[in-house]
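User: Structure please.
Assistant: Input sequence and predicted structure:
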Amino acid sequence: MEARIIRETLIRHRWNKSQAARELGLSRVGLRAKLERYGLENVHPLAPPAAPPGVPKRMAGG
């Protein structure tokens, strides 16, 4: 749940971590720690979603 809120906030702020952290009531360092904890630190903001296992990429929009 927290990871989803963080990701939605980052998307709303176009992945500006300073603005997202401010809205979430976190420091930038605190937000970075949560991004690492949830595996979101390497998510590219414009990358299409990954295809579920067994679904060809062309059918998953990628």
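The chain has three helices and no strands.
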